[in-house]
Design a protein that fits this description.
Helices cover 38% and strands 21% of the residues. The protein contains 16 helices and 16 strands. Strands 6-7-8-3-9-10 form a 6-stranded mixed β-sheet, sandwiched between helices.
Length: 414
């Protein structure tokens, strides 16, 4: 049985109001006031408007939105660099929104680490000294924290730069140092506030790939802030889109593309390459395979004829695909009295993981064979045919065209 992901962070009705008298503005908000009306009547700014969400253990969760949407305020409320006005923020069941400062500093040292947009490295310290800084604060022995820092630099490909100062490194390398410093503390939660936005596009893509690689190994719980929808959909397990302090929609990248909550989300995703976001599993058709050793050639023929199919995948006792048989070959085998289906099945067939993007499977279309789709453990999930791919993209293209006609550009800035 697969273990269900457990919420590590649970945010309940979190509110942040900027101003000298937030209680007055808070009452107006609870009475139904909007960000604009509250600011007009009190001069206070509603930074976060009753946000509630959960972030699972081991999840790379992206919060994205335009400037002023409240995303950076939200992440800073998580580690109390900004104190929320009201609401709750549970980390492993403990409401850190209401602990005292001593306890909050302990939580920051032991459970959370942060990577900032502008690197925030100590210019007078070497790379390794920057990485080991958090470990020194934790009280780790000198030999231990130096080795831990070097090992972490090795993980991000910068060990050979350990004795250089940050100014000798490129922007992308400096951001790797910032990432290494956060990872070295072994914190359960990694907070990344626009961590890659100051980088050049090529280096930014490299850092995105590096983060995804490290996450596949380390399985940290990462809260990543971004204003870039392409970045959010590329790296996020789930994405929360914010506007005016509110959460507009939370979902997987595929859900945001295929099930947008409103025109605001549709407008955000207009220019996204859908084929790069949608996964093969989302268009997989469940079909009945032939289980080797559990069925007969006659039964396979009847299954194909009943469902109007021309081909069928053969799986072993562990449900892993091992071959493909056609209706014509099965009928020939029946006429010739051939009971061994392995004698007529093709063993050279295309197979892809359900997590593979549609963009990556176009190359298999020219084979003319249905793709065998497998899960993470190699078990058969179903098939995808060329017509499924083009039909899926066709439906999305139609939706994009309709949104483009109905959505005005000014809506994104509203």
């Amino acid at each position: 049985m697969n273990r269900q992901p457990q919420p590590l962070i649970r945010i309940e009705n979190l509110i942040k109001i900027y101003g000298n008298n937030p209680r007055m503005a808070l009452k107006l908000f609870r009475d139904g006031g909007t960000r604009d009306s509250i600011q007009a009547s009190t001069g206070h700014v509603l930074g976060i408007a009753g946000v509630s969400l959960t972030i699972n253990e081991g999840e790379l969760f992206v919060v994205m939105g335009l400037s002023g949407s409240g995303k950076s305020t939200l992440i800073r409320c998580l580690n109390r660099l900004i104190n929320p006005t009201s609401g709750h923020n549970f980390i492993e069941g403990e409401d850190v929104a209401h602990v005292n400062e001593v306890r909050m500093r302990e939580i920051r040292r032991s459970k959370m680490a942060m990577v900032f947009q502008r690197f925030a490295l100590f210019p007078h310290k070497t790379v390794v000294e920057n990485v080991e800084y958090g470990l020194k604060i934790q009280g780790m022995a000198t030999d231990d924290y130096r080795q831990k820092a070097l090992d972490t630099l090795d993980a991000v490909g910068l060990r050979q730069w350990a004795d250089y100062v940050p100014s000798a490194l490129s922007g992308g390398m400096q951001q790797r140092v910032g990432l290494a410093r956060a990872l070295a503390t072994d914190a359960d939660i990694l907070l990344m506030d626009e961590a890659f936005s100051a980088l050049d596009p090529l280096i930014r893509r490299e850092m995105q790939d590096e983060l995804m690689r490290l996450q596949a190994e380390l399985k940290k719980t990462i809260v990543f802030i971004s204003h870039d929808i392409q970045e959010a959909l590329k790296i996020g397990d789930r994405v929360a889109v914010m506007k005016d302090g509110y959460i507009v929609q939370v979902g997987t990248p595929e859900e945001l593309i295929t099930q947008p909550a409103d025109d605001y989300i549709r407008a955000f995703t207009l220019d996204v390459n859908r084929a790069q976001v949608l996964k093969t599993g989302s268009i997989t058709r469940k079909t009945v395979p032939f289980i080797l050793g559990k069925g007969s050639v006659q039964a396979a023929v009847e299954e194909l004829e009943t469902n109007g199919r021309a081909q069928m995948y053969v799986v072993d006792r562990e449900s892993k695909p091992i071959g493909l048989v056609t209706l014509d070959d099965l009928k020939i085998a029946l006429r010739e009295g051939q009971a061994d289906i392995t004698q007529v099945m093709q063993t050279d067939f295309p197979s892809v993981n359900a997590a593979t993007s549609l963009d990556e499977i176009f190359q298999y279309c020219q084979t003319g064979l249905p793709l065998a789709v497998v899960g993470s453990k190699g078990k058969f999930k179903g098939v995808v045919e060329q017509s499924d791919i083009f039909a899926s993209i066709g439906r999305l293209s139609q939706g994009v065209a309709e949104t483009a006609e109905s959505t005005q550009p000014s809506q994104l800035a509203s």
